[in-house]
Design brief:
4-stranded parallel beta sheet, 76 residues
């Protein structure tokens, strides 16, 4: 089993600091951008960190565990 990369989705001010830890920062400044970014996640992503606002834009159904999706967590 191969470990995928870690990505974070959210506004620049909410996610930029994670770049220092080697996380792939995917900036999405509004709900539509969050949804577009989510739909185009690279297949190499194994974990997605979302800001609370990004999680709200996606809704619970989109983030539900599924074999075809990466593990997803929401920042407090």
């Amino acid at each position: 089993m191969t470990m995928g990369t870690v990505a974070v989705i959210g506004t620049w001010t909410g996610v930029c600091g994670l770049a220092l830890a080697g996380v792939d920062v995917l900036v999405a400044e509004d709900p539509d951008a969050v949804r577009r970014t989510w739909q185009t996640l690279p297949s190499t992503v194994g974990l997605v960190i979302l800001t609370a606002e990004a999680a709200q834009a996606l809704g619970a159904e989109a983030m539900a565990p599924a074999p075809s999706r990466p593990l997803t967590v929401v920042m407090p």
